[in-house]
Design brief:
One of its GO terms (molecular function) is NADH dehydrogenase (ubiquinone) activity. The chain has 351 residues and is mainly alpha-helical. It is built from 14 helices and no strands.
Length: 351
């Protein structure tokens, strides 16, 4: 994908180094520097085709990330005013709530979490598939793990309540926004917002469930984005075109259903783990809101699936498909069998 850009691998290396620097640092200035290095490496990859839509998305992304970085710097300065140290791992008191809140807001802006989620669909709608994949997976790692680190530093009721409201709002906005979308990239952006809400809620209760959810989400996203890239090479702008894409369209729809969390697909396992880890906690109502947001997404995906499958049942002849489509079928079978296998192992271990 980046073969036309000779220095694309250098930008990918810079982007990876920035993320690793942010995740491995305990100093707020080095965390901020790592996020900026990651931004410098990712921006040239957004505009490698030099189209108008990519340029607009790159400008929007740059402005939003700069705003998030400014919130991080302001929050770290407020923390420094209270503790006189730039180190991250210090104890937080009641007087540090304002700085802590500003830090969380900066990370939410960078992630695209509620109520700062409006930029993500607009940015992702103008990008090619590989850039969308990087934006939905790798670019979420550093801010998400920083949120997890901040949760280890403060167990204030107000902070936990704020993160619960952010996670439930993200899940609901992801479901409501996806109901009115016909553009595939924007639909996947709203799906990413919903999944980020689940990850933040999982981080409150269990670090292991959050990391498992993140791994499964990245695995399904890679399969889905690569399948979409292979199927249309950028020509499939509207999601209704999946109906005319044969068996490959059915495979992509199964991956979308897995991303929405339909059992027994692989995406259901991650949501099930989060529910099990948090059902004994005091935030049962938040679980209901998360499930409600997922049901909205699942309703839209299922309605699209039935309209496509029942309207084009005669077109799904395996003999007419090429070898590449069979590869996507294997990816789909892997998602189904993987979800069933993990569910069986989890049930056996819980007995």
């Amino acid at each position: 994908m980046f073969s036309s850009l000779p220095f694309g691998y250098m930008f990918m290396s810079v982007m990876g180094i920035g993320t690793l620097l942010s995740v491995s640092s305990i100093h707020w200035l080095s965390i901020w520097a790592g996020l900026e290095i990651n931004l410098i490496g990712f921006l040239p990859m957004l505009v490698y085709q030099k189209s108008v839509s990519e340029s607009q998305s790159a400008v929007k992304y740059f402005i939003i990330q700069a705003l998030g970085s400014s919130f991080l710097m302001l929050g770290s300065l407020l923390m420094f005013n209270m503790s006189f140290t730039w180190d991250m791992y210090i104890s937080f008191g009641k007087s540090d709530i304002l700085g802590f809140t500003v830090l969380i807001a900066g990370l939410c802006i960078k992630l695209g979490l509620f109520p700062f989620h409006y930029w993500l669909p607009g940015v992702m709608a103008g990008l090619p598939w590989i850039s969308c994949l990087i934006l939905a997976t790798w670019q979420k790692l550093a801010p998400l793990f920083l949120v997890l680190s901040l949760l280890e530093l403060s167990h204030s009721y107000l902070i936990i309540l704020m993160l619960c409201l952010i996670s439930s709002g993200s899940a609901l906005m992801g479901g409501i926004g996806g109901m009115n979308q016909t553009q595939i990239r924007a639909l996947l952006a709203y799906s990413s917002i919903s999944h980020l809400g689940w990850m933040v809620f999982a981080a409150i209760h269990s670090e292991w469930s959050m990391k498992t959810y993140l791994f499964i989400y990245i695995l399904i996203s890679i399969s889905l984005f690569m399948s979409l890239w292979y199927s249309d090479s950028g020509m499939m702008k509207n999601i209704n075109n999946l109906k005319n894409n044969g068996f490959a369209g059915l495979t992509i729809m199964m991956l979308l259903l897995s991303l929405a969390g339909l059992p027994p697909l692989l995406g259901f396992i991650s949501k099930w783990l989060v529910i099990v880890a948090s059902c004994n906690g005091p935030w049962t109502f938040i679980i209901f809101l998360l499930i409600l947001g997922s049901l909205m997404s699942l309703f839209y995906y299922l309605s699209l699936f039935f309209s496509m499958f029942l309207g084009n049942l005669k077109k799904y002849s395996i003999n007419e498909e090429k070898l590449g489509n069979n590869v996507m079928v294997l990816i789909n079978i892997f998602n189904i069998l993987g979800g069933t296998l993990i569910l069986m192992v989890s049930l056996l271990t819980s007995m």
